[in-house]
């Protein structure tokens, strides 16, 4: 579970990333130089990775710990590995 | 240089990614299960990577080839390596 | 803690990766075509990632679960996040 | 084409990476703490990425430039995109 402060912080980061994506759409339609667009794509991807890491840490500290304390460790770890593979792409 | 068809195709992909990001913001604010959110983050990142690869290929086939034919290979390759590194994050 | 069977399996994978690296060294010294060498480098990196995922899963199922059951969740998760970041590079 | 100096430099890096892999095999067989092993795996992967980037740059500056100047740009770029995808894993 995310705290209200975490939700606020993540929402702000996601809004900024959404703004970057809008910026990329605009740059493409304005025929801006590909290299500048590609740098922005890299920045948006890096931003999403940071959001993912923050959520993953929060998820681990709450849901995963809770699940393990309730003896549901097998499912919790299987799920965690799936998430990690999804984020790594 | 992107062709009009490439711009159309990339714009469509970017709109879809922007929709995914909005979805992630909503999911977070609705306290949805972190694992579902994390899978969406992974999907958005993978989508951005695909957009990056399409642009990188188009850039290589036009600007990089052009630059090399005009003897500006040193700068073109230096720039290309910078883009690779930016996309890999 | 890795089981004996896991150690055997990982050792076999690592020997194969070591063989790939030796192969890459040989290819470079024999002036083989860069693209073939680069494909091998990609394969060795992917192999190391698989080894990392196997170890990470085993570590999570044993040490992390153990630590959490003993109330040492804070350190265990901090360490886990550090490992994620190290593997992602 | 790699110069003799590049071959020497890459061979040295690859020998170091091979040593890291041997070290990882040893650590696993000595039941060393998984987290330390995982950090080493991350370091070896990062080392291979650097080797890949050096080769990719050298390949681009020689073979790709040569191919483009000889009008074989289509194949050269297709190959380059394949290499980039292979390295990214």
From TrEMBL, chains A, B, C, D:
<dbReference type="Pfam" id="PF02583">
    <property type="entry name" value="Trns_repr_metal"/>
</dbReference>
<protein>
    <submittedName>
        <fullName>Metal-sensing transcriptional repressor</fullName>
    </submittedName>
</protein>
<dbReference type="InterPro" id="IPR038390">
    <property type="entry name" value="Metal_Tscrpt_repr_sf"/>
</dbReference>
<dbReference type="InterPro" id="IPR003735">
    <property type="entry name" value="Metal_Tscrpt_repr"/>
</dbReference>
């Amino acid at each position: 579970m995310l705290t209200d402060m975490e939700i606020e912080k993540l929402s702000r980061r996601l809004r900024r990333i959404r703004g970057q994506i809008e910026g990329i759409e605009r740059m493409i339609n304005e025929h801006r130089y590909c290299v500048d667009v590609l740098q922005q794509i890299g920045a948006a991807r890096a931003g999403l990775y940071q959001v993912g890491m923050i959520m993953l840490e929060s998820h681990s500290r709450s849901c995963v710990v809770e699940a393990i304390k309730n003896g549901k460790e097998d499912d919790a770890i299987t799920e965690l590995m799936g998430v990690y593979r999804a984020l790594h792409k």
